[in-house]
Amino acid sequence: MKGFKSGFVAIVGRPNVGKSTLLNYVVGQKIAIITPKPQTTRNRILGILNRADGQYIFIDTPGIHQPRKLLNRYMVAQAKHTFYDSDIILFLVDATEGYGKEEELIVNALRNSSVPVLLVINKRDLVNQERIQGIRDEFVNLLKFHKVFSISALTGDGVEDVLMALGELLPEGPPYFPEDMVTDRTERFIAAEIIREKIMLLTRQEVPYAVAVLVDTFKENEQKGILHIGASIIVEKDSQKGIIIGKGGNLLKKIGTESRLALEEFFAIHVYLELFVKVRKDWTKNAHFLKELGYGEKS
Ligand code: GDP
Ligand code: MG
């Protein structure tokens, strides 16, 4: 194993910059949920890339923003914790947005960091070269970066260059995880996240952030080649329950169908999906319940 490298790469950046997209791209599988709405990643998710020269462990962090609810406070704490705990930091910037309030917060948080920071300008497919150069110039004046890249996490353009730079920076050492592992998350957790993603995509504003998904049943019937998943969709109010169910149960049916198709694709097996909608008042403020959902454990 001489020369083998392994270490942790934190992906930081404002909500919607493309952190989860990049994570999924590098591990070649969908392990983090992606929606056009900010703040969909609630928990730290590890994505593991196993290559001949090393094990690259990526950490997708929730965005940094003003903490209001307990859930939000937890997300911010996770993000900060991740900065100082990794071997390399990938600072993602949205080429269509440039420098803003969130970037200022991150720049300040990174100013005294001894961990090398790579600036990665994402969504280069949406802007021209001049714009990228402009963003680059602005950022290098504010913080010392080990290197600067521009990529499209969506198409994968430029990502290999970033991986090569990571390979050079990672410390030598044996792998932390078995080589067939792509994430530290359980299949149950991923199933819940896939369902939550569909809900977020199919509902508007108020509702999505009040939704949690808890997988109660996860059983494979090998003879029949069917995976039985039973999940509770948990909301804070009766009115939200009504919205999720929809007129004549239409929306819930749609959530069910789209979730099932996505689950079948991920697990590569037929899925029998049962969904229940439950009201749990103020669950986003309930520390015990957050823990039960997997948002509470310290690591
Ligand atoms: P996160 O909040 O930082 O995890 O961002 P996501 O990965 O969830 O992405 C937010 C949105 O940006 C989604 O709609 C993605 O499809 C989109 N997106 C991410 N990367 C790119 C990219 O390189 N190009 C384009 N055009 N869209 C992207
Ligand atoms: Mg995300």
Could you describe the 3D structure shown?
The protein is α/β, with parallel strands linked by helices and 299 residues long. It folds into two domains: 5-169, Rossmann fold (3-Layer(aba) Sandwich); 187-292, 2-Layer Sandwich (GMP Synthetase, Chain A, domain 3), CATH 3.30.300. It is built from ten helices and nine strands. The strands form two sheets. The chain has a six-stranded mixed sheet, with helices on both faces. A three-stranded mixed sheet has the order 7-8-9. β2 and β3 form a beta hairpin. α6 (187-202) runs antiparallel to α9 (250-267). Magnesium ion binds at residues 19-20, 32, 40-41, 60. Magnesium ion binds next to α1.
